[in-house]
Amino acid sequence: MKTPVKNFIGGKWVGAHSGRTFDSRDPATGEVVGRCVDSGPEDIDEAMKAATEAFEGWRRMPAPRRGEILFRVAERLMRDKETLARTVTREMGKVLAEAKGDVQEAIDMAYYMAAEGRRQFGFVVPSELPDKSALCVREPVGVVGLITPWNFPIAIPSWKTFPALILGNTVVLKPSPETPVTASLFVQVLEECGVPPGVVNLVLGSSPELGAALVRHSNVALISFTGSTATGDQVAMDAAAGHKRVALEMGGKNAILVMDDADLDLAVDGITWSAFGTTGQRCTACSRLLVHREVKERLTRMLLNRMAKLTVGNGLKPGVEIGPLVNHAQLERVQRYIQAGMQEGARLLTGGKALTDGEYARGHFFAPTLFDQVKPTMRIAQEEIFGPVLGVLEVKDLEEAIAVNNSVQYGLSTALYTRDLNRAQRAMRDIRTAIVYINAGTIGSEVHLPFGGMRRTGNGHREAGQAALDTFSEWKAIYVDYSGRLQRAQIDKE
Ligand code: UN1
Q1: 254-438 belongs to which CATH class?
Q2: Residues with Cβ < 8 Å from 374, sequence gap 6 or more?
Q3: Runs of H (alpha helix) within 80-221
Q4: Where are the domains of the chain?
Q5: Active-site residue numbers?
Q6: From the CA of 149, how far away is ligand 1's center (Å)?
Q7: How far is CA 186 from CA 1, 11, 183, in A?
Q8: Nearest-5° angle of CA 296, CA 302, CA 303?
Q9: What is the CATH number of domain 7-250+458-478?
Q10: pLDDT at residue 493, as a whole number
Q11: SS3 at position 447
């Protein structure tokens, strides 16, 4: 890796105006993964200028041609999967198998959106007037600003970049300061696969002002943001001031509901994976377990047995199942929630502390944690923790489980374990989250289905699937009158 890692603007790798740098560190070891240029608003201005200049040419390139570039991107990502995944693990800590999954999600998205180059369907409808045709086509919105998080440092930039590109938008990408090196490798792949200069631009930086400068830029047509609810709120307000389109994907407080007729072994697998996979740092992570009282004791015992066998450590090491938290601030945040849980009367069954001995000494490791006797109004049952912390809540039946599930402000993902078809159907109808799993955990979305959340998780937009095309395009209605005379709609009916 050449240092410092640079911005990519107008097809060139360039320094930042400030002349400053910041370090991206491995959360397992504290080692520097890359020294990166630390950009400011001037660098955003330049990236926006390059993206604006590139827009006309890119939007006019036939969509199937744009698709061919994305096919090449898919193949290159596949070829580089192992190297990219290792960088993901080193930069943000998730275990290697999951890091490969992160890259795979980008590969899937690249193939999916590449194929949209030959679809991108509009529609043709009859006009109400004779000798007149009416059709609708998708249009790109312009230069889009993408603000992406560290927890899926390849997948989420790809969820936003590939649909934006296939529709003819140009991009300014501002990745999380936790994962700049991964972002630069991602953009390097795009460059090498023939994305023309200025079509995708990358601006790296550590200051929160950088994202704000992008959102407030007069020429940015749309902001797609994934991250915390607090930042998302600010993005929404800044975007509203300039009448920008904005798509937000924010917090979650996802639950797994386990009924008394469930396959408990299967449920334990899904709970462990959903609560502790990615060290609980997924928007879709499960942090509430709503268990039918008839099976609560048994399930809790089974879960504790499984948790005792979980291996925490450096994600590059074979056999490790749980990596570190991304940084010290995140570790402190998780610790604060442990305190809050105890103060509010939840019972700590296991975990609850940072791991600091031996190989853990230089990283941000945290023991997988289980709370019992959690009540729906407690903070640990209401607020997103983003760590390996799960709370058990007892419920008497499915109705109560659904009511408790729906009682949080977020609406991303819910899972239900039951063998009763009627219960499953009722849950699918009444659960108020935008993703529902039956007999599988809360994580594991696929790229060709819409991803996002109801209520405070988002603002109604979806990523991935066909829904992503709606986010990144505008509809244009075209009327062609070939009658050779004035025909007034709604008036000239004869
Ligand atoms: C996220 O945590 O922001 O369903 C994305 C999943 C993954 C994506 C998660 N496919 O957990």
Answers
A1: alpha beta
A2: 288, 341, 346, 380, 381, 391, 392, 393
A3: 81-92, 96-116, 155-166, 180-192, 208-216
A4: 7-250+458-478, 254-438
A5: 249, 283
A6: 11
A7: 13, 14, 5
A8: 85
A9: 3.40.605.10
A10: 78
A11: coil
Give the chain's radius of gyration (CA, Å): 24
Best mutation site among 151, 279, 284 for ligand 1 pocket (most ligand atoms within 8 Å of CB) = 284
Q: How far apart are the first and last CA of the chain?
A: 72
Per residue, the 3-state secondary structure of 190-206, as one string, reads: HHHCCCCCCCEEECCCC
- Cα separations in angstroms, 142 against 119, 190, 220: 20, 19, 7
Peptide bond into 318 cis (omega under 30): no
Closest CA to 186 of 255, 91, 256: 91
pLDDT at 332 over 60: yes
CB count in 10 Å sphere of residue 64: 15
CB-based contact 23:178 (threshold 8 Å) = no
One-character DSSP codes across 347-379? EEEE--SEE-SGGGTTS-EE--EEEES--TTSH
Q: State how far the Cα of 164 lies from the Cα of 398, in Å rounded to an integer.
A: 41
| 3-state helix, strand and coil shares in percent for the chain, rounded to the nearest 5 | 40, 25, 40
* Protein residue whose Cα sits closest to atom 3 of ligand 1: 283
N residues, the chain? 494
Q: State the closest ligand 1 atom to the C-alpha of 447, by its place in the atom list counted from 1.
A: 10
Report pLDDT digits (tens) over 213-264.
999 999 999 999 999 999 999 999 999 999 999 999 999 999 999 999 999 9
Ligand 1 environment, Cβ below 6 A:
105, 151-152, 282-284, 443-445
Question: Are the C-beta atoms of 8 and 200 separated by less than 8 Å?
Answer: yes
Q: What is the whole-number distance in angstroms between the Cα of residue 19 and the centre of ligand 1?
A: 35
Close Cβ partners of 295 (under 8 Å, ≥ 6 residues apart): 258, 259, 260, 262, 264
Per-residue confidence (pLDDT) for residue 3, from 0 to 100: 80
Report the chain's mean pLDDT, rounded to a whole number: 97
Question: Is residue 1 pLDDT above 60, yes or no?
Answer: no
**Phi–psi pair at 65, nearest 5 degrees:** -70, -45
pTM above 0.85, yes or no: yes
